[in-house]
Amino acid sequence: MKITSALFLLSAILFVPNSLLAQHAAADTASKSLPLNVYQLLRDSADYIDVVFYPPYTSSMSLEGKNVRLFSSLIEPVTTQKQNLQRTGYISWLWRGRELVFADFFLGEKESYLVVKKEEQEFVNRISPQGAQVLKQNAKTK
Asked: Could you tell me if 93 and 34 are in contact, meaning their C-beta atoms sit under 8 angstroms apart?
């Protein structure tokens, strides 16, 4: 009886760390949204936004004041899965001329999102349908 209990305990010790490692590895590959404090910083503290579109688009837009807060509210505090989309442009949130957050954005037919790389981590936040519409309306080609 003691041998059976010892074997069970030994197998449990060997099995549990492997299962925890597998869960940890799966969590690392899943998309994460910006930490709440960073999201709130860009939404509440930024006083200027630059939006620049990559080619083939030739447009850009700059927002300041209340428009920054309105635009920032179109970025949702939740994550989404990255799609096989081409980068559409980037958004830079600034406060008193200093960059707070820089993000590439991707506009798709069904899903749009932005990707922030901060402190060697990647965060993916969904752009609301209204936000994607605003960006698409401002994307101009030659």
From this structure: no
Predicted TM-score (pTM) of the model is 0.75
The larger pLDDT score, comparing residue 40 to residue 90, is at: 90
User: How many residues does the structure list for the chain?
Assistant: 142
Task: Kindly report the number of other CB atoms within 10 A of residue 69's CB atom.
Answer: 15
Answer for the pair 50, 101: CB distance below 8 angstroms, yes or no. Answer: no
Cα–Cα nearest to 138, from 85, 74, 79, 83: 74
**Residue indicated by tokens 């922030």:** 116
Measure Cα distances from 81 to 9, 14, 43, 101, 127 in Å: 39, 33, 22, 20, 12
How many Å apart are CA 98 and CA 34, to the nearest integer? 19
Q: What stretch of H or E contains 21?
A: helix 2-29
The one-letter code for the residue type at 84 is N
Residue 4 has pLDDT above 60, yes or no: no
The answer to whether the beta carbons of residues 132 and 139 sit under 8 Å apart is no
Rounded to whole angstroms, how far apart are CA atoms 35 and 39? 6
Phi, psi of 119 (to 5 degrees): 50, 50
